[in-house]
Write a structure and sequence with these properties.
- The chain is mainly alpha-helical.
- It is built from 6 helices and no strands.
- The relative contact order is 0.17.
Length: about 170
């Protein structure tokens, strides 16, 4: 009787199934991707728009703050999804969260850098913006999740099968 109760308690403490976790992750990442794509497009438009440096600065700071917040929201939602019940579930969940944390931080640094730029002269201002965006792009690329060690057949199947990921 005690053993059966212990088994039930341990089983009840487990994380979500691979399918449930994949669905939660896709529900977190789908709006994040859409927001990042929208912000990226807006940033590109801002870089070529005929605005004053002060207007561009205000818009870019707002855009990068939005991307930072969207990344944090996605990271928090994945954290709330828990740890999937699969081999290396802890590492996989932590990897997703760490990747989004790095993206969030990269956007925050870009926002802070642009916010600190002097808008008195357009040339140096836009040079600073380009440098900030170049750094952001490098940091963004470096933040990608290395899935080579986090190989879970169950999760791959779940991500392929759940409707939230399509």
């Amino acid at each position: 009787m005690v053993l059966a109760t212990l088994v039930l308690l341990v089983a009840g403490c487990g994380g979500p199934s691979p399918r449930a976790w994949a669905a939660a992750v896709c529900e977190a990442l789908t709006p994040w991707r859409a927001e990042i794509n929208k912000l990226t497009s807006s940033t590109q438009q801002q870089m070529t728009a005929q605005t004053t440096p002060a207007q561009a600065k205000e818009n870019l700071v707002r855009l990068f703050a939005g991307a930072e917040q969207a990344s944090e929201t996605a990271r928090r939602r994945i954290e709330e999804a828990g740890v999937p019940e699969t081999d290396h579930g802890d590492e996989i969940s932590a990897g997703f969260r760490a990747s989004l944390s790095k993206v969030r931080d990269a956007y925050g640094r870009a926002r802070d850098t642009i916010d600190g730029l002097d808008t008195a002269q357009a040339g140096p201002f836009y040079d600073g913006v380009r440098a900030a965006v170049d750094t952001l792009n490098k940091e963004y690329d470096a933040s990608s999740l290395d899935t080579s060690r986090l190989n879970s057949t169950e999760l791959k199947e779940a991500f392929d099968e759940v409707p939230e990921c399509r």
